[in-house]
Write a structure and sequence with these properties.
The complex is a heterodimer of chains A (662) and B (519). Chain A has 662 residues and is mostly helical. Chain A has 28 helices and four strands. Chain A has a two-stranded antiparallel ribbon with strand order 1-2. Chain A has a two-stranded antiparallel sheet with strand order 3-4. In chain A, strand 3 and strand 4 form a beta hairpin. The longest helix of chain A has 48 residues. The radius of gyration of chain A is 31 Å and the shape is globular. The N and C termini of chain A lie far apart (101 Å). Chain B has 519 residues and is mainly alpha-helical. Classes of the chains: A mainly alpha (662), B mainly alpha (519). The interface between A and B is large, with 52 and 61 residues.
């Protein structure tokens, strides 16, 4: 009975998707008719249904090895032989993502009861995060590119709404506009990629496209006359531009740090655990395409390496608790991207999963601190908080340990797999990428423990009023922290054998044998204990320790040193503080340039040339012409008589000439 | 019961006669009841007309490209001019859109028009009949009469109920559009004179006969250009677009809605009914120019929209930019053929353009209504006079945001469907056509959402905004209906596209055959 439900009946999948949507509609559209409690109840019930059913589906895939489901729900439209449908493709990759999304979402829903308790937009917030859950599920469960794009843009919309949730703040509504437009730059590439898929394969259905992908390895497209680029490479690069914006890869990363203007629960849910990983998921889902383009893979590898290294550096100079974590997210997304480039899709997805848990945990724990600090986010005004907030402290520490890859913690298994995979990769850019992510380990440990020490250790630096009131947050906040801390510690050890070195994902991810670095690594894999023990002899472990020790020395032992160092390294410090000047370049060159171009076209093109010269010009010409013609209509009879005679004479001449010529 | 009625005639003449009846009722201003009789009567007429157009969809035969609901009676027998009506999958959705939007417009003016109410309402009803007439006419002269007559009520609407600079705007509107149509008349007469070469030898004014006239390439080019001037002005295409922002700015809300939602579509419809099928070789030879003009409209006008200070101007420019997708979709087929030597993707280009027309009718109409809602309250269209509207009008803000997102082509709204189809189609012709068309994803989002940021979001800085009251039940109803349409066609566009298939496939088949006479 249960098997039938999961395997044959689509209603369970519809329920997973629609339950959060119902919650969103009730809390959003009919919000005024229900109480605050009811708003959070309906949305939480909706997401809980989703989460429970997703777990059930995951169980069937993980334990009972269920076959892939690919079903159409309805036909969206048909035109010119292109059938576009709404439907679900459920395999192990999807099932895992469903569990991650719905579980984190459920935690965030519960946590929100506490975090947004006093906010006047309480119901609206619940409506948005449920709508987000719906959109994200549509994205990951899609069986075709159009639905993927729908989910892709819908999560972007909700992200826009939530970054600008506190819409009276100028910074928030600047950040959300920026986020949407930067994402649209990515979508611009993405939609061209989809259109190119439609042209090449004459279908937008995953299965059709993937099945036919190898038939098109030789086909080329002439983007410029005389050039012949591999169509698959162009498709992959265009699709990846979409992923670069959504998963915040340099140089389209600029929106993510600013997105921290939104309430903390959504920073955890959308801007750390789920939405920003959509790009990673997309590339993994499209592995049958990306595998065929070494050029695209190399590009992905380098972009990921650049992001992992340079964005991590920025985390060191930030003083806002959420922004440090945000830069950490950028850097970790870089790690996932590097892994995609190295064809270690499974490792990338595995890091996506572990990261979702520990990064959501870190954000929610940071949010817990922020509540206790009365919405103060500057870490220079914190310190010693561990004495007041033990649960937040311990869970935050666990999240940090997972993030930096402490052997045994979830992040260790996923990050070490990535580092090893890149090391084993044969791509031309793999050496640089390996160096970048190796140094990234030191940087990650350094900024994470800098944050940890400044917030939880040392002397309290907050004002008296705040300090007197400092206490642990309520259960709705701490329970989700604990529930997220468990997977942050354990999930790596539980799944690494299957997901990274085993064949968990099966046909969901396609890797060419010559790219299959994980298969090479799997030969040397002898269980989790061996992996942990081996790590003590490896470079990443010592780099990580060095990072922790440096942070400890600089921020605990000798706190005046960082100031001196920043004086000494003034230029570097300034570049870091200005985030490599990306924001300045964007706002001057792109935003400013667009406004100037618009003004020029409006003033010169439309007003002066078209209206001024042509439209009003021809009106003036008519006026001028008639002012001359007017002289002919003088009213004098002899003028008219003369004109008449002239006309008669002309006609006569014309007539005569024709008669003669015949 | 409906099948035997002359539905098209009813749809044309019910609003026209109803409009005249509204004039007769007049503004009986007893007890200062604000011409309630005229309003109610006009609304009933509009609803009745809409009901009369519904069977056009319900009884529509999807399997044929032939004209349906045909009515034909001799009108001026001497010149073989007929009262000849009929619709296919191209005109039918536009007729229903017209009758639907007219109800919205009449409701929208319910409270805001206080002067000469009956005359105002009658203008819109008469305009509705004439516009349906344009879409339904299969006789060239009948078409031309409707086409020109339609200008008069619009001219009056802007000239009488318009803003302070309305005289300049009406003159610009009238001269632009009137001059455009004169050459079309010449082309129609030329076609008539050449249409009798068949078996009977009698010249015809039937548009369907025009489709069969053999013409040399030179003739086709001239005729194409004559039509182009008429239709390009109406669409409007760059560079003959500058009348539109002025007309919109001065027009009352209802006028703007009709202008954006329906009138612009008449030009686009003209391309499909005349230019493409009558002069396929002429269209082919000039298609590159048409594609360039369309792309300029999409990109250039997008940038112009970005810097507008006036909300109505911004939306007007946005309309021009969106209509660029329509003309792009119409002329992409030849570019596809010249590259691939087949017509795969042509149908999608034209259908995408058609979807864009319908969708733009809802979205631009809704956007102008939103501006109207604000204008009714503060009597300003300037962006700088607003800011933080969401604080005082949260429900309204939600609607405006939804329509803004639809305007930016968000998937799940109807605004996405047409653009997506046209981009796919354009890519089959040339990557760079699709590239420049897809730039609208960025530019469109920029100008729309930047306006939303400055108008809707933020804290309240002006005392006037602080005193705003949220939308009332009537406004809520109007905006909800439009929102449902925008979402419905975004989530399920199949029913809309299905009605077009036969006609568009037939059109593509028709244009693929050269009309140059073989010697």
């Amino acid at each position: 009975m249960e098997n039938n439900l999961v395997e044959q009946d689509m209603s369970i999948y519809l329920a997973i998707v629609l339950a959060p949507l119902m919650g969103a509609i009730i809390a959003g559209v009919f919000g005024r008719y229900i109480s605050r409690t009811m708003a959070h109840q309906v949305t939480i019930v909706g997401v809980a249904i989703s989460a429970a059913l997703s777990l059930l589906v995951f169980k069937h895939f993980a334990l009972e090895d269920m076959t892939t489901i690919n079903e159409t729900i309805y036909t969206w439209m048909v035109s010119d032989g292109l059938h576009l449908e709404v439907g679900f493709l459920i395999d192990k990759l999807t099932a895992m993502m469903m569990v991650v999304v719905t579980f984190v979402s459920l935690m965030v829903h519960i946590y929100t009861i506490g975090y947004m308790h006093d906010d006047s937009g309480y119901k609206r917030f619940f409506s948005y995060i449920s709508l987000f859950t719906f959109s994200m599920l549509m994205l990951i469960m899609a069986n075709n590119f159009v639905q993927l794009f729908f989910g892709w843009e819908a999560v972007g919309l909700v992200s826009y709404l939530l970054i600008g949730f506190w819409y009276t703040r100028e910074t928030a509504i600047y950040a959300n506009l920026k986020a949407f437009i930067v994402n649209r730059v990515g979508d611009f590439g993405f939609i061209l990629g989809i259109a190119l898929v439609a042209m090449t394969f004459n279908s937008l259905d995953y299965q059709d496209v993937f099945a036919a992908s190898t038939l098109h390895t030789e086909s080329t497209i002439a983007l410029f006359p005389g050039t012949h680029w591999s169509t698959i490479t162009v498709i992959c690069l265009l699709l990846f531009i979409g992923a670069m914006a959504k998963s915040a890869q340099a140089p389209l990363h600029v929106w993510l740090p600013d997105s921290m203007e939104g309430p903390t629960p959504i920073s955890a849910l959308i801007h750390a655990a789920t939405m920003v990983t959509a790009g990673i998921f997309m590339v993994a889902r499209m592995s049958p395409l990306f595998e065929l383009s070494p050029v695209a893979l190399n590009f992905i590898l380098l972009i990921g390496a650049v992001t992992a290294f340079f964005m991590g550096l920025l985390g060191i100079v930030q003083n806002d608790i959420k922004r440090v974590i945000a830069y950490s997210t950028l850097s970790q997304l870089g790690y996932m991207t590097v892994a995609l480039g190295a064809s270690a899709y499974a490792a990338s997805i595995f890091h996506l999963m572990t990261h979702a848990f520990f990064k959501a945990l870190l954000f929610l724990a940071a949010g817990s601190v922020i509540i206790a600090m009365h919405h103060e986010q500057d870490i220079r005004k914190m310190g010693g908080i561990r004495h007041y907030m033990p649960i937040t402290w311990i869970t935050f520490l666990l999240g940090t340990l997972a993030l930096i890859g402490t052997p045994g913690f979830a992040g260790f298994f996923s990050k070490d797999s990535i580092i090893m995979a890149v090391h084993a990769s044969q791509l031309p850019g793999a050496n640089i990428a390996y160096l970048a992510i190796l140094l990234g380990v030191f940087i990650t440990a350094f900024y994470s423990f800098r944050l940890y020490f400044l917030v939880f250790h040392g002397q309290p630096r907050m004002d008296h009023h705040t300090k007197a009131d400092l206490h642990e947050t309520p259960k709705v906040v701490t329970v989700p922290l604990i529930l997220l801390a468990i997977p942050s510690v354990l999930i790596g050890a539980l799944f690494v054998a299957d997901m990274v070195f085993g064949d968990f994902f099966g046909a969901a991810i396609m890797v060419l044998p010559e790219h299959d670095v994980l298969a090479t690594l799997a030969k040397d894999y002898h269980g989790i204990i061996a992996m942990v023990l081996h790590s003590f002899k490896s470079l990443p472990f010592w780099l990580m320790l060095a990072g922790i020790m440096s942070a400890w020395y600089l921020y605990m032992v000798n706190p005046s040193l960082p100031e001196k160092l920043s004086q000494r390294l003034l230029i570097i410090h300034k570049v870091l503080l200005n985030k490599y000047y990306f924001d300045d370049i964007n706002s001057t060159v792109f935003a400013g340039g667009a406004r100037q171009l618009g003004t020029f076209l409006s003033r010169f093109g439309d007003t002066q040339v078209i209206d001024g010269w042509f439209v009003n010009g021809s009106a003036k010409l008519v006026a001028w012409f008639s002012s001359i013609i007017r002289h002919i209509q003088s009213g004098y009879l002899y003028h008219y008589a003369f004109a008449m005679m002239l006309g008669l004479a002309t006609l006569l001449v014309l007539l005569l000439t024709t008669v003669i010529s015949h | 019961m409906f099948a035997n009625l002359p539905l098209l005639s009813l749809a044309i003449w019910t609003p026209i006669l109803g409009g005249l009846a509204v004039l007769a009722i007049g503004n009986k201003n007893r007890d200062n009841n604000n011409a309630i009789e005229a309003k109610v009567f006009a609304l009933l007429i509009a609803i009745l007309t809409f009901i009369l157009t519904v069977p056009l969809y319900v009884l529509f035969n999807l399997d044929t490209a032939a004209m349906q609901f045909v009515e034909k009676t001799a009108w001026i027998a001497l010149f073989n001019i007929n009262y000849y009506l009929g619709i296919d999958g191209i005109s039918m959705p536009l007729i229903i859109l017209t009758s639907f939007i007219t109800i919205i417009v009449i409701l929208a003016g319910w409270g805001s028009i206080k002067d000469k109410v009956a005359q105002y309402l009658s203008c819109f009803l008469i305009m509705e009949g004439l516009m349906i007439g344009v879409f339904a006419a299969l006789d060239a002269i009948l078409f031309y009469v409707f086409w020109e007559a339609m200008l008069i009520p619009m001219f009056l609407v802007i000239g009488i109920w318009g803003g302070p600079n309305r005289i300049y705007a009406t003159l610009k509107f009238f001269i632009y559009t009137f001059l455009g149509s004169v050459l079309m008349l010449v082309a129609l007469l030329y076609l008539h004179l050449n249409s009798g070469i068949g078996d009977t030898g009698v010249g015809s004014f039937s548009i369907l006969d025009f489709h069969q006239v053999q013409l040399s390439l030179t003739e086709q080019r001239w005729i194409f250009i004559a039509f182009l001037i008429a239709f390009a002005v109406k669409v409007p295409m760059w560079p003959v677009h500058t009348w539109l922002p002025d007309a919109h700015v001065e027009a009352p809300t209802g006028g703007s809605v009709i202008l954006a939602a329906i009138m612009l579509k008449l030009g686009a419809y003209g391309f499909l009914r005349f230019s493409l099928p009558i002069t396929p070789d002429g269209s082919a030879s000039l298609s590159f120019m048409m594609i360039m003009l369309s792309l300029i409209a999409v990109v250039y006008i997008g940038f112009v929209a970005l810097v507008q200070q006036d909300m109505k101007k911004l939306i007007a420019y946005s309309s021009i930019s969106h209509m660029g997708f329509v003309t792009l979709g119409f002329f992409i087929p030849w570019a596809i053929f010249s590259v691939n030597n087949n017509w795969n993707g042509a149908v999608m280009g034209i259908e995408g353009a058609m979807v864009q027309m319908i969708s733009h009718g809802f979205i631009s109409g809704a956007m102008f209504l939103c501006v109207g809602v604000l204008y009714d309250r503060l009597h300003s269209r300037m962006i700088k006079d607003y800011g933080g509207v969401v604080n005082t009008m949260p429900t309204f803000a939600a609607f405006m945001l939804l329509f803004a997102m639809a305007n930016a082509g968000l998937p799940g709204t109807s605004g996405f469907v047409g653009e997506f189809m046209v981009i796919i189609s354009a890519l089959k012709a040339n990557f760079w056509y699709a590239f420049f068309a897809a730039l609208t994803l960025i530019i469109g989002a920029s100008y729309t959402l930047w306006m939303v940021k400055r108008v809707i979001f933020g804290s309240v800085i002006h005392a006037t905004v602080a005193g705003l009251h949220d939308i009332d039940k009537r406004e809520l109803g109007i905006l909800s209906v439009l929102a449902l349409m925008v979402l419905f066609f975004g989530v399920y566009p199949a029913p809309l596209i299905d009605v077009m298939h036969s006609s568009v496939e037939h059109l593509v088949e028709h244009i693929s055959i050269s009309k140059i006479p073989t010697e």
